[in-house]
Design goal:
There is one protein chain. With 688 residues, the chain is α+β, with helices and mostly antiparallel strands. The protein has a domain of 253 residues: Alpha/Beta hydrolase fold, catalytic domain (Rossmann fold, 3-Layer(aba) Sandwich). The chain is built from 13 helices and 39 strands. The strands form nine sheets. An eight-stranded mixed beta sheet has the order 32-33-35-34-36-37-38-39, sandwiched between helices. A hairpin with a 4-residue loop joins strand 7 and strand 8. Helix 2 runs antiparallel to helix 13 and helix 7 crosses helix 8. The termini are far apart.
């Protein structure tokens, strides 16, 4: 099984902000996330913003349109291959909290699979009087039992309960863990490895221990396997279930982008021990196959005189020289990796459009076959099977709905399900351009627009630019229905800080080079206007999480380029961020404000410290969630309050539920997007 541990997931962690580094901050009181006074303030701001936005007749149309797509029964039920079955989590109008279900692999390929409902989350929430949000499930080898994760309100902290697939019920007396941020894996059907923040947490709020727990014994008797330090990002188990057997490991993330790996082994006296593996800190382990750990290198690496380039896909075997499986060129990136029972798959982009490669090993080297999937878009890995030859892939782009492909193991993927078109794209076109950033670097971006556009039009520019996350072409019913079909333009910028061209593209905007990401985004905005596609008063920018930091920074630095801003679940106070939510885990990305030189640099761009009275900023709409225990609503609250006090036009909406996605179900998601698009339409002058 591929590990569920994903440092990327730590983005998309709760420590109450201490107010350190912000002793003169008049809005530090808003850092009390669940305090009565801050919540009353948030409700007051919600009322001010929601009333006028919902009064716009477009709001209800937008809401109904988004919800109809989210609840549509003709969506593709994306699933996970496990043994002889495909597992899927499904939400619709009848099941707003969702149902966890499965069907056979053969049945899944038919137009109307016969689903077996395993867990009805709506019914469970009602019975237990809990606001449960399903956060996934991991199953034991042989499909006997599964560990189900349930969150109260959608935050990262979860309650873990064991599910019996034979009786199709949550178990009494099975493996269960109380609410906490947790990482856990089955070693076998009767043993789990787990790390929970309740047993000791890092400064980031994540677990720093891994324990072994045997079935039938109390949790107090679980054996400590490994303990990290408070300064680590987290310590977590990682288990691969392969045809050669079950292989357990411990991962110690010493920073967000550096990890040590330890093999879990039987030592003297049959005592379980750990052994540190000879791998570089920059190795990001993705899979295991044929006894080899498969990793992507975040930095250049040299071993015994052999050089391995950053961004390369590499196989590590104990006692052997590492093998390069694939080395990307400067315009390529290994986006995702997964191993099935027999083959290794990697989704690899070239100039931000992708293909899926199938790799097989003969013990001496690796063959490489590009699968026959469409081009000019995103080809991705959906799922692989630990216990069989099957794999599933997908393809989409900005104007092409997603199609799901099934591969029986013969490297001949066949389309089995396609998403119906959610908007009429016949009169639209997607183009890829480049903008020259401040330092001359060429920044690619995609423009999707009406083909016969006459003159400049309202445009929304979206970006992220961090954590080596790539923005590849994707089909958005929201942008299609609510923006493009009304004559608007949708733009996606592939700025530095992302992973579009591998680790080097990401490293170019790390820490004290962060300004490059903001310069890149501003350069795309300028290039759009130079090409006559839009004007400053017609250009809006949108981003969430790290993208919220992006758009708030560019808003403060280049207000002359913009007509409106939508800033979702953002980081903003970058001087105090390490003491808010899981902020301490992101020092590897942004730098540490406790270090004077890094603090001085952060101060040059941190939006909260740089926003000023008397400057004409575009109107901004902050969207956040009380239950977000990763970034938390603190950043949005404080920035909104400061800007209001300075006399700027500010709109604010804080949802109670939803965690870092700011929406726990389809209705909440429909509300968030309906509000955002009404706001953008009003501010940017979208007429129809």
């Amino acid at each position: 099984m591929r590990t569920r541990l994903s440092l990327f997931a730590l983005l998309l962690g709760c420590v109450l902000a201490s107010g350190a580094f912000a002793l003169d901050d008049p809005y530090v009181w808003l850092e009390d996330v669940h305090g009565a006074k801050p919540l009353a303030w948030a409700r007051e701001q919600n009322a001010k913003s929601l009333a006028p936005l919902k009064a716009d007749p477009r709001y209800q149309k937008n809401y109904d349109s988004v919800l109809s797509v989210l609840d549509a029964t003709d969506r593709i039920p994306m699933g996970a291959l496990r043994g002889s079955n495909v597992y899927n989590f499904w939400q619709d109008a009848q099941n707003p909290k969702g149902i966890w279900r499965r069907t056979s692999i053969a049945g899944y390929q038919t137009a109307s699979p016969r689903w077996q409902v395993l867990l009805d989350v709506d019914a469970l929430a009602k019975t237990e009087s809990e606001n449960w949000v399903f956060k996934g499930a991991g199953c034991a080898p042989g499909e006997t039992r599964c560990l189900v994760r349930l969150s109260r309100g959608g935050g990262d902290a979860v309650v873990t309960r064991e599910y019996d697939l034979a009786t199709m019920k949550l178990m009494e007396g099975g493996f269960s863990l109380p609410e906490a941020k947790v990482e856990l894996e089955y070693l076998d059907g009767d043993t789990i490895l787990f790390g929970t923040a309740r047993d000791g947490e890092t400064n980031s709020g994540y677990a720093r221990t891994v324990k072994v727990w045997k079935r039938g014994t109390p949790i107090a008797s679980a054996t400590l396997l490994y303990e990290g330090t408070k300064e680590d990002v987290l310590v977590a188990p990682m288990v691969f279930h392969t045809k050669e057997g079950n292989f357990p490991f411990v991962v110690r993330a010493v920073s967000f982008f550096e990890s040590e790996y330890f093999a879990v082994e039987n030592g003297p006296g049959n005592k379980i021990t750990t052994r540190k593996l000879d791998m570089p800190l920059s190795a990001d382990v993705k899979a295991m196959i044929d006894g080899a750990l498969i990793a992507v290198l975040r930095q250049d690496y040299e071993k015994d005189g052999t050089k391995f380039p950053k961004g390369a896909l590499v196989a590590f075997r104990d006692g052997q020289r590492p093998q390069v499986i694939f080395a990307p060129n400067p315009r390529q990136s290994v986006e995702s990796v997964a191993a099935g029972r027999d083959k290794l798959y990697a989704a690899i982009t070239n100039n931000v459009t992708g293909a899926v490669h199938a790799f097989t090993s003969n013990g001496k080297g690796w063959s490489d076959k590009v699968l026959a999937l469409p081009g000019a878009g995103s080809a991705d890995i959906v799922s692989t099977n630990d216990d069989g030859p099957e794999a599933m892939f997908s393809f989409q782009n900005y104007l092409t709905p997603t199609t799901l492909y099934f591969d029986a193991g013969n490297d001949a993927p066949l389309a089995i399900k396609s998403l119906p078109a959610r908007f009429d794209a016949s009169g639209m076109v997607t183009e890829q351009f480049e903008a020259a950033s401040k330092d001359g670097t060429k920044i690619p971006y995609f423009v999707t627009r009406p083909r016969n556009l006459a003159g400049p039009a309202p445009a929304v520019l979206y970006g992220y630019g961090g954590f080596e996350i790539s923005l590849t072409p994707s089909y958005s019913a929201n942008f299609g229905r609510l923006w493009l079909t009304h004559g608007g333009i949708y733009v996606v910028a592939n700025i530095r800080g992302g992973g579009e061209f591998g680790p080097g593209w990401h490293n170019a905007a790390l820490k004290t080079q962060r300004q490059r990401a903001y310069d890149d985004f501003a350069a795309v905005a300028e290039d759009l206007q130079r090409r006559g596609l839009t004007t400053p008063k017609q250009l809006g920018i949108l981003g969430g999480s790290n993208g919220g930091l992006l758009v708030s920074t560019v808003m403060v630095q280049r207000p002359d380029l913009l007509g409106a801003v939508v800033c979702q679940v953002p980081l903003i106070d970058m001087i105090a961020y390490t003491h808010i939510g899981a902020g301490a885990s992101w020092v590897g990305e942004y730098g540490d404000p406790a270090i004077p030189a890094e603090r001085d640099y952060i101060l040059t761009y941190s939006p909260y410290q740089n926003v000023k009275k008397g400057v004409k900023y575009p109107p901004v709409f902050f969207v956040t969630a009380t239950s977000d225990d990763r970034v938390t609503p603190v950043h949005a609250r404080k920035m909104a309050a400061r800007m209001m006090e300075q006399g700027h036009e500010v709109w604010f909406y804080e949802n109670t539920d939803g965690g870092h996605s700011a929406a726990a179900d389809h209705r909440q998601a429909a509300e968030m997007w309906a509000l955002s698009f009404v706001y953008l339409a009003e501010k940017l002058g979208l007429k129809n």
